[in-house]
Amino acid sequence: MLLEVNGMKSSYGRIEALHGIDVQVGEGELVALVGANGAGKTTFLRALSGVQPLTNGEIRFDGADITKSKPQARVKQGISQVPEGRQVFGPLSVEDNLRLGAYRRRGADTDADLERVFETFPILKRKRKESAGTLSGGQQQMLAMGRALMSNPRLLLLDEPSMGLAPLLVGEIFNIVQMLREQGTTILLVEQNAFQALAIADRGYVIETGRIVLTDTGENLINDEKVKAAYLGL
Ligand code: ATP
């Protein structure tokens, strides 16, 4: 397994938000973690990227224990997160935003990576000289994903990429996530939009109030009666 999370617990003060999470992601897999508002998805991702401490459990990446590694060290090892709300640098151009994503890789072939990102997101190429702040919500999401890809990640963490987007754009973003997986990127997709996330995922986990309550293939979860009732509105 590329990523192994074992018994992860995490708290805000005296309030425990994660009660022992076990999640695995294999090389090349697209894994979805789905759950409602407040289930603990963001806390889980923050703990993975190292900005939220664990009170128990461990995180292993490529076999190494990174539970206590600093966020920058994890990025260097290849864990790259696209944060919720995207957080692109509005005044900077699209191209400069993308180049910032490669800043840890001095000496790397940034131009080749940039071209690859432009192939995946042609709209970003057309708008490369425009300031990021002028992009639509969907385009900013693409920019944030492109920026993360510029670090050549071994694991891409996506925090609710469909949030706040119109339905048509949501479909487009999920298509892109699926395409990235087909290109070989390992992805952990965290989503409230359970149906579309599970539809493209190899495997999925359902999180409820800080616990994993179900795990199976994406397909089996979509057809699971409990999942249908609770998350798919069916
Ligand atoms: P959302 O979809 O709204 O982001 P989520 O699934 O990401 O929800 P979390 O934000 O991880 O859920 O929250 C998990 C639990 O931890 C919730 O009960 C929430 O109220 C609590 N929590 C989150 N952030 C804090 C904080 N800074 N201080 C105290 N409690 C918090």
Which fold name is given in CATH as the topology of the largest domain? Rossmann fold
Distinct compounds present: adenosine-5'-triphosphate
Biggest pleated sheet = 6 strands, mixed
Secondary structure class reads: alpha/beta
In total, the number of domains comes to: 2
- Number of helical elements: 10
Radius of gyration: 17 Å
- The CATH architecture category of the largest domain equals 3-Layer(aba) Sandwich
Which strand order does the major sheet show? 6-7-8-3-9-10
Distance between the termini: 34 Å
N to C succession of SSEs = EEEHEEHEHHHHEHEHEEHH
Number of distinct beta strands: 10
Beta percentage is: 25-35%
GO molecular function: ATP binding; ATP hydrolysis activity; branched-chain amino acid transmembrane transporter activity
Organism: Caenispirillum salinarum AK4
Pfam families: ABC_tran
Protein name: Branched-chain amino acid transport ATP-binding protein LivF
Task: Jot down its keywords.
single chain, 234 residues, alpha/beta, Rossmann fold, 2 domains, six-stranded mixed β-sheet, four-stranded antiparallel β-sheet, 10 strands, globular, binds adenosine-5'-triphosphate
